[in-house]
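Sat 14:20. Reprocessing the chain from the morning session after the first attempt stalled halfway. Input below, unchanged.
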Amino acid sequence: MAASERFVRVYRQGTMTVMDIWVDTVTGVNYLYHQQGYSGGLTPLLDRDGKPVISAVGADGLER
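Finished this time. Tokens:
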């Protein structure tokens, strides 16, 4: 991962209708991106309590 990559895609599903999960490598917040045709949308991924899903982030980026 390059030092300038703020967001990293960690999951991808589909080809024509696409759902991705992106992680902010600074804050650890997960985002759901949905694309269908020429339109798309991005929203924070929430847990069952309505709080953002946060991944562990180390000093040099996302921990896997």
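The chain has one domain: 7-62.
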